[in-house]
Amino acid sequence: MGERTEQVITLSLPSSMRHVYLLRAVVTEILKEADFDEGTQERINLAAIEAGTNAIEEHGDREDPGKSTIFQLILNEDGLTINTIDEGEASTHKAPEIEQVITLSLPSSMRHVYLLDVVVTEVLKDSDFAEEIQEQINLAAIEAGTNAIKHGNKENPSKKAIMQFLLDEDKLTIIVEDEGEGFTRKEVADPLDPENLLKSSGRGLFLMEACMDSVTYEANGTIIKMVKYKT
């Protein structure tokens, strides 16, 4: 028999019923990649909504967006398992003034980048950003996630790429963290330099910086923080 493999995807959401749809969106996309018939997919989706609702209700008699509900989605050859884990087990950059924090943790495989697209798209549906700005944010987020998985973690599935979305009244902050060795921004080739026009290096960083209002590199480049203001 071959080695048993499993993929663990973690999604941390504010404890509000308005965010249960995001869990379902992620589960739906995961199931598209799995070998389940349509009826089974629908039953799993309904179970995911029930699990999300129950987890949120466990925080008390009313919703509390200041708290997080964390879902662990484990996909292997036997099926999909949905667990809830303690809030304290997940790392967070949350600051007191932030209204909502959504975190997605992915195995470092390019096959999972589509889930980042799903989360970004769903997050932006409730934002006040114009459609053109939403497209820019989506592009920047996918480029950052791709860099974390492909260049940072070298597509090592045992390493995690963590994407965090911090929404407040006037801006959206996206923090992308990898477990790689890091890099120095000034040493990355400028894709606009004539001698680099045929090289792919640096194009992702250039797009991120062009699409967002602010891009900063921390922890030797293993953490990228991007900000887009609403006005």
- So how many helices? 5
Instruction: Give the biggest beta sheet.
Output: 8 strands, antiparallel
From the spread of the alpha carbons, the general shape counts as: globular
Strand order in the largest sheet: 3-2-1-4-5-6-8-7
CATH class: Alpha Beta
CATH topology: Heat Shock Protein 90
Low-confidence stretches: 88-94
Describe this structure in words.
By secondary structure, the chain is α+β, with helices and mostly antiparallel strands. It has one domain: Histidine kinase-like ATPase, C-terminal domain (Heat Shock Protein 90). Helix content is 33%, strand content 28%. It has 5 helices and 8 strands, in the order E-H-H-E-E-E-H-H-E-E-H-E-E. The protein has helices spanning 20-32, 38-57, 113-125, 131-152, 203-211; strands spanning 6-15, 64-76, 79-85, 100-107, 160-167, 171-177, 214-218, 223-229. Strands 3-2-1-4-5-6-8-7 form an 8-stranded antiparallel sheet, covered by helices on one side. A hairpin with a 2-residue loop joins strand 2 and strand 3. Helix 1 (20-32) packs antiparallel against helix 2 (38-57). The radius of gyration is 18 Å and the shape is globular. The model is unreliable at 88-94 (pLDDT under 50).
Notable characteristics:
28% strand; alpha+beta; Heat Shock Protein 90; 231 residues; eight-stranded antiparallel sheet
Summed up:
The protein is an alpha+beta fold.
Give the arrangement of secondary structure elements:
Layout (H helix, E strand, L loop, with lengths): L5 E10 L4 H13 L5 H20 L6 E13 L2 E7 L14 E8 L5 H13 L5 H22 L7 E8 L3 E7 L25 H9 L2 E5 L4 E7 L2
Antiparallel strand pairs: 1-2, 1-4, 2-3, 4-5, 5-6, 6-8, 7-8
Helix pairs in contact: 1-2, 1-3, 3-4, 4-5
